[in-house]
Amino acid sequence: MARHNDQTDPTPSPSSRGATLPEPATGPGRDGLAALLARPARALIALDFDGTLAPIVPDPEKARAHPEAVPALAALAPEVAAVAVITGRPAEVAVHHGGFAGVAGLEHLVVLGHYGAERWDAVSGEVSAPDPHPGVAAVRAALPAVLAGHEDGTWIEDKGHAVAVHTRRAADPQGTFDALRGPLTDLAGRNGLIVEPGRMVLELRPPGMDKGKALRDLAHDLGAEAVLYAGDDLGDLPAYAAVDDLRAKGVPGLLVCSGSEEVTALSKRADLVVNGPQGVVTLLRTLAESIKSATG
């Protein structure tokens, strides 16, 4: 795990119970955690999926939530206003890979897929979504020609409302990522889309879809009085900015980074860095225990 801002890895061992909550490294983060613990019933817990609740794997179709993630979320969710998973994946895919459907304690879980363009909630078990942007179909058809010469090891993920090109399985993942970024940015621009870079992935998607807007809208709808957001990748930076905006408006917030060596932009801005998905689920479980102890 990358360490920045002199933050210390606060993650207890996986089997620990009754663990002490780690102290955020920043004043705003400490205020956010204090507000969450003081008013859990008015708190929103929002999390990315890949790299935060689920370990990063070479094939995104094989990604699954950490085995302790669902029990930790189910323990925490009844204690807070809402738990939301905000992801670039289609909502139904995140629900399936996360194992979120039909879990006791997660009756009010919300999954915001495609950066908030889709919404799945456990109450109805249904997904609401707009029609795809026409540029996505055009990009999908043009991608094979753009990837000519880079087919070995690259992989196209069709997300319906977006298309992603993965380079993790290439012989030179970073070199291939760098070589494709310009051509894919040009292709996206010609079709009214933007490119969202991530951990060895370049996603071509419509503008105006980001985790920051999704988080702001949900926090507003809930009337949240405290917000925690946990992420691991560049696509989570808009959500970090949304928490900063909420703080400026008087809503305390806690920024958590699921740390990795691949992306350091979040850990440099986070109030609290934990050791990947294992650290995230330990934090969630410890939060649930702390709230129950205080209210019980």
Description:
This protein is 36% helix and 18% strand. It is α/β, with parallel strands linked by helices and 296 residues long. The strands form 2 sheets. It has an 8-stranded mixed β-sheet with strand order 5-4-3-2-1-10-11-12, with helices on both faces. Strands 6-7-9-8 form a 4-stranded antiparallel β-sheet, covered by helices on one side. It is globular and about 60 Å long. Mean pLDDT is 90; it is low at 1-16.
Write a concise synopsis of the structure shown.
The protein is α/β, with parallel strands linked by helices. It has helices at 27-38, 69-76, 91-98, 134-146, 173-190, 211-222, 237-248, 265-269, 276-295; strands at 43-47, 82-86, 110-113, 118-121, 127-128, 155-158, 163-166, 194-198, 201-205, 226-231, 253-258, 272-274. The relative contact order is 0.21.
Instruction: Report the average pLDDT across residues.
Output: 90
Q: What would you report as the Rg, rounded to the nearest angstrom?
A: 19 Å
Helix and strand element order: HEHEHEEEHEEHEEHEHEHEH
Number of strands: 12
Which consecutive residue ranges, at least 5 long each, have pLDDT under 50? 1-16
Structural class: alpha/beta
Q: Outline, from the CA principal axes? A: globular
Biggest beta-sheet profile: 8 strands, mixed
Strand order within the widest beta sheet: 5-4-3-2-1-10-11-12
C-alpha end-to-end distance: 35 Å
Count of runs of 4 or more consecutive helical residues:
9
Proportion of residues in β-strands: 15-25%
Fraction of residues in H or I helices: 25-40%
